């Protein structure tokens, strides 16, 4: 008995309806995966666009913003440590002297931390306050009594208020573990200093609000990537950018003295 050839069954193979659907789904999936793979390994995309001067370290990428922040932490201590020591002596109320003590303790701690971080990251730090910071210290040096208390509280409170957002920016964006921990420590210290400065009773909140609105803190200027390891770090830039040159300190009469402050010796 002769076998009959089966007629071809239409629709089988890659050109069948099912094959076309499968091929289409596969192509779509590959198109979705390819951009993710290709962009992940391309320089000049993603986070690299935000931090063009980012350099690799053993603790994670170090951006220009990270380096500026480290420098500013050091500079903050270079002028706020002397200001705190001075307030312990010249403050006419216990609250002002206590605020000075907190500044000394807080920036002594941060200064030790920032030197350690800079050494591990091979960054060099400045050794003296900026010209503007020296002017702020000169302003405090020239003041006495209630005038000193008011100037001290308002200059330092404005400075710490402005840096507060900078610390948050660095903490939220850094990919470096050392910088992240330093930002944590700086955040705790700055908040403590804001609290004790406000507790003096001399902070003029109206003037503070006007100045913060009129002179918002500009973004940190990216610094170029370091060429290589540097010598041991020396001191550096304020983490707490103090009041702007245009800030007019309130008169002593406009800032209420702390309750019970008049009887201090």
From TrEMBL:
Q: Which InterPro entries match?
A: DUF4142 (IPR025419), Ferritin-like (IPR012347)
Query: Gene3D superfamilies per the record?
Result: 1.20.1260.10
What Pfam family does this protein match (any one)?
DUF4142
* Record region (Disordered): 214-265
Enumerate the spans annotated as DUF4142 domain: 66-196
Provide the alphabetized UniProt keywords.
Answer: Membrane, Transmembrane, Transmembrane helix
Q: Where are the transmembrane segments?
A: 12-37
Origin, by domain of life?
Bacteria
Where composition is biased (Pro residues), the residues are: 219-245
Q: Note the PANTHER family from the entry.
A: BLR2558 PROTEIN
| Protein name per its UniProtKB record | DUF4142 domain-containing protein
Q: Give the originating organism.
A: Streptomyces chartreusis
